[in-house]
């Protein structure tokens, strides 16, 4: 996934907490996507303005100990979001 791509979140999905788990939820499709803590951070950083590279850089700054894995994690998370229609890339 190119670092210059800008993921645009669907306004139809919301982040919900249910029994101490985070879910990305679409109420009319009754679709829910389980969210790890990292995935929820990626979702919150998808504002339709930040590029994939900027999201990765922000997370690397916040979590330098995980910087080697973050690029792959962000890409996989965004692919999952796109498969469920939660973001357009």
Please describe what this structure looks like:
Strand 3 and strand 4 (31-35) form a beta hairpin. The strands form two sheets. The protein has a three-stranded antiparallel beta sheet. Strands 1-5 form a two-stranded antiparallel ribbon. The radius of gyration is 13 Å and the shape is globular. The protein is an alpha+beta fold. It has three helices and five strands, in the order E-E-E-E-H-H-H-E. The chain has a single domain, classed as Coenzyme PQQ synthesis protein D (PqqD) (Arc Repressor Mutant, subunit A, Orthogonal Bundle), CATH 1.10.10.1150. The longest helix is centred in the C-terminal third of the chain and has 17 residues, at 67-83. The N and C termini lie close together (9 Å).
Order of secondary-structure elements: EEEEHHHE
Q: Round the Cα radius of gyration to an integer and report it.
A: 13 Å
Task: Please work out how many helical segments DSSP would assign.
Answer: 3
Strand content: 15-25%
CATH classification, class level: Mainly Alpha
Unreliable stretches, pLDDT < 50, 5 or more residues?
none
On the 0-100 scale, what is the average pLDDT? 92
Distance between the termini: 9 Å
**Strand-pairing-aware structural class:** alpha+beta
Shape: globular
User: Strand order across the biggest sheet?
Assistant: 2-3-4
Helix content: 40-55%
Biggest pleated sheet? 3 strands, antiparallel
| Total DSSP E strands | 5
CATH architect. name: Orthogonal Bundle
So, the CATH homologous superfamily?
Answer: Coenzyme PQQ synthesis protein D (PqqD)
What fold name goes in the CATH topology slot? Answer: Arc Repressor Mutant, subunit A
Q: How many domain regions?
A: 1
């Amino acid at each position: 996934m190119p670092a210059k791509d800008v993921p645009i979140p669907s306004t139809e999905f919301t982040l919900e907490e249910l029994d101490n788990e985070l879910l990305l939820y679409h109420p009319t499709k009754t679709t829910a996507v389980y969210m790890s803590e990292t995935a929820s951070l990626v979702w919150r950083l998808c504002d339709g303005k930040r590029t994939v590279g900027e999201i990765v850089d922000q997370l690397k700054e916040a979590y330098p100990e995980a910087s080697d894995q973050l690029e792959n994690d962000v890409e996989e998370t965004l692919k999952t979001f796109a498969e469920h229609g939660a973001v357009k890339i």
